[in-house]
From TrEMBL:
Keywords: Oxidoreductase
Documented EC number(s): 1.1.1.47
Any matching Pfam family: adh_short_C2
Species of the source: Candidatus Dormiibacter inghamiae
Family membership noted in the UniProt record: Belongs to the short-chain dehydrogenases/reductases (SDR) family.
InterPro entries: NAD(P)-bd_dom_sf, Sc_DH/Rdtase_CS, SDR_fam
Oxidoreductase in keyword set: yes
Coiled coil segments of this chain: none
PANTHER family in alphabetical order: OXIDOREDUCTASE, SHORT-CHAIN DEHYDROGENASE/REDUCTASE FAMILY (AFU_ORTHOLOGUE AFUA_5G02870), SHORT-CHAIN DEHYDROGENASE_REDUCTASE FAMILY PROTEIN
Keyword Oxidoreductase: yes
Protein name: Glucose 1-dehydrogenase
Length: 255
């Protein structure tokens, strides 16, 4: 499994799962555009480290919810790194609140970043992949909540469910251009998005009970599956969701 000769854009790569994916892809031989919005120092330091270790990387600031910034990011990546063969839509946010209290502003924020942002990136990168005539691979980091409810996370679940159907539709529409589209659906992963849970012993205890393998995932365990889907090893895989959840969606309370 490698990405030699490929250029990958990873969104939200300044922290968490995106950061691990950028590292994994670089180790597999890819040139990587590390997109960030809030984690500038981390993204820049990561790019510098990759470049100093013989890799090729670029830290690119862009708000994935803004079409102009996304187009500029893909254009800069293609120009400076020599193409765009892989896109990982990883950028995402969530906030817990009862559905009846969700403000219009909060709804717009989560859906804009998690779903519209993925669409804009898919469209910009997809056009570049089509125009190059070389095809490519698009991997969306969704969540087990692309299919399973998560009370108090209405906008998050709606955006992740949308990501599931965006992926399925895109897989069909882009197949003629040799562009594959798949989702990776993580369960609970030890990243900044879960800081509240990681700092709450009662929640951690409950999680270890309801996750069959008994623990949260490390971001690297999600990155390995994203690498497989991005690489030519997955040349016949499109339109699928791969769960990386330690069996969480199969959990059943014994009677
Ligand atoms: C969410 C986490 C949650 C996990 C499992 C993820 O998509 O980001 O907050 O712990 O799903 O429910």
């Amino acid at each position: 499994m490698d990405l030699k000769g490929k250029v990958a854009v990873v969104t939200g790569a300044g922290s968490g799962i995106g950061y691990a994916i950028a590292q994994r892809f670089a180790a597999a031989g890819a040139a990587v555009a590390i997109n960030y919005f809030g984690y500038e120092n981390e993204a820049r330091a990561l790019a510098e480290r990759m470049n100093s270790q013989g890799g090729r990387a670029l830290a690119v600031k862009a708000d994935v919810a803004k079409a102009g910034e996304v187009a500029a990011m893909v254009e800069q990546t293609t120009r400076e790194l020599g193409g765009c063969h892989v896109l990982v839509n990883n950028a995402g946010v969530e906030k817990a609140m009862p559905l009846l209290d969700v403000t219009e502003e909060e709804w717009d924020k989560e859906v804009s970043i998690n779903l519209k942002g993925a669409f804009l990136c898919l469209q910009a990168a997809g056009r570049a992949m089509r125009d190059s005539g070389q095809g490519g691979s698009i991997v969306n980091i969704s969540s087990i909540h692309e299919d399973f409810p998560f009370p108090l996370h209405g906008p998050y679940c709606a955006s992740k469910g949308g990501l599931r159907m965006l992926m399925r539709n895109a897989a069909l529409e882009l197949a003629p251009y040799q562009i594959r589209v798949n989702n990776v659906a993580p369960g609970a992963v030890a990243t900044p998005i879960n800081t509240g849970t990681l700092n709450d012993p009662a929640k951690m205890q409950r999680l270890s009970e309801i996750i069959p393998v008994g623990r949260m995932a490390k971001p690297e365990e999600v990155a390995d599956v994203a690498l497989f889907l991005a690489s030519d090893s997955a040349s016949y895989v499109t339109g699928s969701t791969y769960y990386v959840d330690g069996g969480m969606v199969r959990y059943a309370e014994p009677l």
